[in-house]
Fold this sequence. Notes:
Blueprint lengths: L4 E8 L2 E2 L9 H16 L8 E5 L11 H8 L8 E4 L5 H15 L4 E9 L7 H8 L9 H7 L6 H12 L3 H21 L6 E2 L1 E4 L5 E4 L11 H5 L19 E10 L1 H7 L5 E10 L8 H13 L8 E4 L5 H10 L12 H4 L6 H16 L3 E8 L3 E9 L1
Parallel strand pairs: 1-6, 3-4, 3-5, 11-12
Antiparallel strand pairs: 1-9, 1-10, 2-9, 5-9, 7-8, 10-13, 12-13
Helix pairs in contact: 1-2, 3-13, 10-11
Organism: Sphingomonas liriopis
InterPro entries: Thiolase, Thiolase-like, Thiolase_C, Thiolase_CS, Thiolase_N
GO molecular function: acetyl-CoA C-acyltransferase activity
Amino acid sequence: xxxxxxxxxxxxxxxxxxxxxxxxxxxxxxxxxxxxxxxxxxxxxxxxxxxxxxxxxxxxxxxxxxxxxxxxxxxxxxxxxxxxxxxxxxxxxxxxxxxxxxxxxxxxxxxxxxxxxxxxxxxxxxxxxxxxxxxxxxxxxxxxxxxxxxxxxxxxxxxxxxxxxxxxxxxxxxxxxxxxxxxxxxxxxxxxxxxxxxxxxxxxxxxxxxxxxxxxxxxxxxxxxxxxxxxxxxxxxxxxxxxxxxxxxxxxxxxxxxxxxxxxxxxxxxxxxxxxxxxxxxxxxxxxxxxxxxxxxxxxxxxxxxxxxxxxxxxxxxxxxxxxxxxxxxxxxxxxxxxxxxxxxxxxxxxxxxxxxxxxxxxxxxxxxxxxxxxxxxxxxxxxxxxxxxx
Length: 391
C-alpha cells in the first residue's frame, strides 16, 4: 500500500507584531525554512518536485505567488516549481495534505509543504481594507451569500463568542486556559522541547547589529490570571480578549513529505507516517466549531478511537475552540497542546498548519508516543485534521 512519510519538519520561532521578524521580507522568511529543511535532510534540492506554500494575506510583499518567490530567494534551483494556497488558518496544513496526496498518488515523490505569514508587513485584512478605502467592490461576500445565512458579514470573533455561549464557557475558564498555554510554553522552552524544530533567522536589531532569532517572542512566562483578567474584551458581551485569543505573529514553517520510492532513492529515514487526511466543512457563521466534526470524521475513517491518540495539536485561535473540542471529543486535556499553543506562541496564519505539524512530530519523538492528531478551525466553517504515526 502506498504511504506518505514525513522526513523532517521545521519552523521559525514566532515574532511578535512589529517585533524581531518584522524587518525580514516574507519571501526571505520562507526561504529560510526551505533552506534549513534541505540542509538538515541532506537531499539534492533538484529532486524536490514541488513546493506548496500556505499564505493567507496574499497582498503586498506576499502577493504575486509568494511560494515561487520564496524558492527564488532560497538556495533551491529555479527548476523547483511552487504554488501558493489559501485555506485560511489551515493553509499550510492543507499544504501538508496536498503534498501527501501527491506522493501517495505517485505523481510526485518528494514535495515540500510550507507556510509563511508576515502579519507585521502584510497586516491581517489589509488586502480587503485597501480595496474598501479605494471604493472598489463590496467586499469578499456577495449579497447572495449574506442573504443565505442572514448575516452582514462572517466574523471569527462573533463565531468564537457563539461557541463560548453555546458551551457555557466563562471568561474565567478562557483566561485559565490561556494561562496554561503560557505555562506549558515556558516549560517547553526550559526543557529544550523546541530546539529540534526551530531554525534560526538572521535579523537586524533596531540598533543595526546582527542577531539570530531563535525564541518565540510572544511567550509570557510571567503571565497571571490577574493580568489576563484586566484585559478588555473585543466587544460588549464577549469573553474574548487579546489574552485568551491567538497572538498576531510573523513566521514560516516547512515539512518534507515523500513516498517509499523517494526514501529508497535518496537514502532518507522518515520520522513519521501520515495515517489520515481529512477536511470537512460546516456552518460558516459559527465557523470555528468544525474541528469537532472533522475529528470525528477522521477517527472514523482511520478506524481509531480518541483514546488511541497520544498527543493533540488543536489550534488555539480562541480559547473556547480547544475547550469545546476537548469536551465534545471526551479527550484527555493532558494530551492537548502539551508545549503550549497559539495563545502563547503565536498564530502566523498561513504558516500555522506546518508549524503545528513540526511541533507535533517532534513532540512525539521526544516523548516516545505513537499517534498524534492535528486540527485547525478555519474561516468559512472549514477544518482540517491530520493524523500521524511516529516511526
